[in-house]
Specification:
By secondary structure, this protein is an all-alpha fold. The protein has eight helices and no strands. The longest helix has 23 residues. The radius of gyration is 17 Å and the shape is globular.
């Protein structure tokens, strides 16, 4: 008899935080500097999930988490095709998706909205400070009207994993 997969169980993915952190910082800096998220960063995040996932999660849960990547990739492709988000943002969001427990989706979206607002305000304030601009000359995001969404995506993933590590997400209780 088939049994249901409990995708609301603690994901155990908080153990990957040390591996995700440098990738997230790379994405945030690259997007602010060039307004592009490197494909290598996207592939690195997928590799972390592919290698650490089977160790951190029950195999059946890990396998189902790949569906998250596929669903977000399709949604991101559609949104990118409609000019709503950049292609790099769509790919990085898809690479992030397996790290988010299905039971946490609503909480994650709320958290991500808050992080996006804070990232936007922080970025817009930072680019108005002459000392910051002198320290980081030539960054495309200082001059462009659009927002480097990689800053919010990376921040959202790090805050989510950090809160999960503290037991503050629904799936970790």
């Amino acid at each position: 008899m088939a049994r249901a997969v409990d995708l609301g169980a603690p994901l155990g993915m908080v153990a990957v935080l040390p591996f995700v952190l440098p990738i997230a910082v790379w994405v945030a800096i690259a997007d602010m500097k060039t307004m592009k998220i490197p494909n290598r960063a996207v592939l690195a995040l997928v590799a972390v999930f592919a290698l650490a996932g089977p160790v951190a999660l029950p195999l059946e849960v890990w396998a189902w988490c790949w569906v998250h990547l596929g669903v977000v990739l399709v949604l991101g492709f559609v949104m990118s095709s409609l000019g709503m988000i950049g292609a790099g943002d769509a790919k990085f969001a898809a690479a992030m998706a397996p790290f988010v427990a299905l039971a946490d989706l609503g909480s994650f979206l709320f958290l991500f909205a808050a992080v996006t607002v804070l990232a936007f305000v922080g970025h817009r304030l930072a680019r108005r400070i002459p000392a910051v601009r002198r320290a980081l000359p030539g960054w495309d995001s200082w001059e462009r009207r659009d927002f480097p969404m990689g800053l919010a995506l990376a921040g959202g993933l790090l805050v989510y994993l950090g809160l999960a590590a503290l037991g503050a997400m629904p799936s970790s209780t």
